[in-house]
Structure formats: structure tokens, C-alpha cells
């Protein structure tokens, strides 16, 4: 982690991307899997087994919990985290959410997915206890721009993207729109997609609205966390 902070010594993705462009990763692109494999392979700082690019489950839970409550007979809330990296978000959902959740984290980096699976298997002395006895947690490698191998249309009740649009858009808007389109395809029509980012709504909203016809997009400010304001972009079906 110290190495990651050394290369991208910032709390925000936007600033991190700028730093990556001007530093030793100058020729790399945040949409490129090889760069992410390198970043995920770097040691994490301190004793934390996970690394969040910016804030974590504890900061997001007030927003998330209302979306995780369902009638008991309806079964667990199916949650997808696209571009989960080595973030603690999925772990937090699994271990701290008091409601039943079935959480799947996907990332195109096999390095990140291997790390998260090793934590699930008890690596680094982790003992993971679910916040609800029927909750589940899994990780798999997948390109979030093509979620066909992951799920059928409408499968998930809640889809989360924490910093992944921000990385993918570095490779161009068409790729980011493909990511958004896939997130919305696997989302239940009554479900919600939430993108977390530090990107300003003035910049982001036009691109999101263009890429999500038929969905209502709204924004909530989060934080500030460590002096930085973030935004949650919510996509919901028009009911
Ligand atoms: C800024 S990091 C955010 C990681 C994590 N969500 C967090 O909040 O710490 C972006 C993540 O997106 C992943 N990623 C980028 N493009 C992707 C794609 N096309 N499919 C799946 N994952 C992708 C990267 O490997 C990285 O883990």
C-alpha cells in the first residue's frame, strides 16, 4: 500500500489519475488491465488486508442500508460490485450488513481477484463472519464491460461502481458507456445502480444521462471525508 500511495499519493481518483499520468506510470492508462495488475500487486500499507481507493463501507453504509432491506421471504439482496479491486466494500457488506445479502465482487484484474479470494479462504489470518447468517460473498474475474458470463439481465437488486467508471472513462467515453450499459442490463428494473466518485456532477451528469435512457439519474453529495467531498450517482427505473 505504501508503494501504491507512493505512485498515486492522493485520496481521489481524479487526482490519482493525474498523478499517474505525470509520474512513472506516464504511458499507462487507468483503463488498461496491466496497469491495474501492477497496482493491485503492490503491498498494502499497514496491517489492512484491503485497500480502498477512496472511502469504504463505513462511510457508505448510511446510504446503502435502505437498499439492502427486503421482505424476509424475498431472499437475500443480490449485490454486484463492479471493479471491486481489493476494496473492503464487499467485505463490509458481508460482515457488517445486518440484512441478508448475496454479494459478488468482480474485477478484470486476476491479481485483485486472487487477493480477495485468498482473504475469503482465511488468508492473512482473516476470519470472516457474516453480518447475517444467510449472507454470501464471492469474487470472480470479469470485464465489467461484458457481464454476460456473470449474470442474466435483471439479476441484481443493487449494483455498485466505486471508482470504476472513473478508470474506464480514461480509455474513452464509449467504453464507459459500455460499462454503464452492462451495469444497467444486469440490474433489476426495480433495483438501483450507485456510482461513487469525486467527479463533479456538472461534468459527469450529462455523460451519465446520455448513457442511461429510460433511467432516472440523481446525485447525492457524500462527506467530506478527510476534507474531500464525494458524490453518489443513483440510477433508478422510472416507475
Ligand atoms: C479506482 S479502482 C477502484 C477499486 C475499488 N472499487 C475501490 O473503491 O477501491 C478501479 C478498479 O476498476 C477495475 N477495473 C478497471 N476497468 C475494469 C473493467 N473493464 N472491468 C472490471 N474491472 C475494471 C480496476 O482493476 C480497479 O480495481
What secondary-structure arrangement, pairings included, does this model have?
Elements: H1 2-7, H2 13-22, H3 33-41, H4 57-64, E1 77-82, H5 89-96, E2 101-107, H6 110-120, E3 136-141, E4 156-162, H7 164-168, H8 173-185, E5 187-197, H9 201-210, E6 215-225, E7 228-237
Parallel strand pairs: 1-2, 1-4, 2-3, 4-5
Antiparallel strand pairs: 5-7, 6-7
The protein binds S-adenosylmethionine (SAM).
Explain what you see.
The chain contains 9 helices and 7 strands. It is of the alpha/beta class and 239 residues long. The protein has a single domain, classed as Rossmann fold (3-Layer(aba) Sandwich). Strands 3-2-1-4-5-7-6 form a 7-stranded mixed β-sheet, with helices on both faces. It starts with a helix and ends with a strand. The structure holds S-adenosylmethionine. S-adenosylmethionine (SAM) binds next to helix 7.
List its traits.
Rossmann fold, 24% strand, seven-stranded mixed sheet, disordered N terminus, binds S-adenosylmethionine, 239 residues, alpha/beta
Beta-strand share of residues: 15-25%
Q: What is the succession of H and E elements?
A: HHHHEHEHEEHHEHEE
Low-confidence region ranges: 1-12, 15-27
Query: Which structural class fits the helix and strand makeup?
Result: alpha/beta
Can you tell me the CATH topology?
Rossmann fold
Global mean pLDDT? 89
Q: Radius of gyration, Cα only, in angstroms?
A: 17 Å
Q: Total number of β-strand segments?
A: 7
* Domains, number: 1
Query: What share of residues is helical?
Result: 25-40%
For the largest beta-sheet, the strand count, sense and barrel status come to:
7 strands, mixed
CATH architecture: 3-Layer(aba) Sandwich
Ligands, ions, cofactors:
S-adenosylmethionine
The CATH superfamily turns out to be: Vaccinia Virus protein VP39
N→C terminal distance: 44 Å
Helical run tally: 9
Give the overall form: globular
The CATH first-level class comes to Alpha Beta
Strand order of the largest sheet: 3-2-1-4-5-7-6
Amino acid at each position: 500500500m505504501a508503494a501504491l500511495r507512493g505512485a498515486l499519493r492522493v485520496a481521489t481518483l481524479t487526482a490519482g489519475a493525474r498523478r499517474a499520468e505525470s509520474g512513472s506510470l506516464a504511458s499507462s492508462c487507468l483503463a488498461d488491465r496491466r496497469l491495474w495488475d501492477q497496482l493491485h500487486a503492490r503491498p498494502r500499507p499497514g496491517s489492512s488486508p484491503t485497500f480502498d481507493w477512496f472511502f469504504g463501507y463505513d462511510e457508505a453504509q448510511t446510504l446503502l442500508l435502505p437498499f439492502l432491506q427486503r421482505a424476509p421471504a424475498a431472499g437475500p439482496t443480490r449485490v454486484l460490485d463492479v471493479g471491486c479491486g481489493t476494496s473492503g466494500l464487499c467485505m463490509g457488506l458481508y460482515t457488517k450488513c445486518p440484512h441478508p445479502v448475496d454479494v459478488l465482487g468482480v474485477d478484470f484484474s486476476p491479481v485483485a481477484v486472487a487477493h480477495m479470494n485468498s482473504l475469503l479462504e482465511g488468508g492473512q489470518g482473516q476470519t470472516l463472519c457474516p453480518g447475517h447468517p444467510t449472507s454470501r460473498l464471492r469474487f470472480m474475474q470479469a470485464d465489467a464491460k461484458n457481464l454476460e458470463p456473470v449474470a442474466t439481465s435483471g439479476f441484481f437488486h443493487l449494483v455498485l461502481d466505486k471508482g470504476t467508471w472513473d478508470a474506464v472513462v480514461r480509455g474513452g467515453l464509449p467504453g464507459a458507456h459500455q460499462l454503464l450499459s452492462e451495469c444497467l442490463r444486469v440490474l433489476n428494473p426495480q433495483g438501483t445502480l450507485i456510482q461513487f466518485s469525486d467527479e463533479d456532477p456538472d461534468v459527469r451528469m450529462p455523460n451519465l444521462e446520455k448513457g442511461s435512457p429510460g433511467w432516472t439519474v440523481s446525485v447525492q453529495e457524500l462527506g467530506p471525508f478527510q476534507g474531500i467531498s464525494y458524490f453518489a450517482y443513483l440510477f433508478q427505473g422510472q416507475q
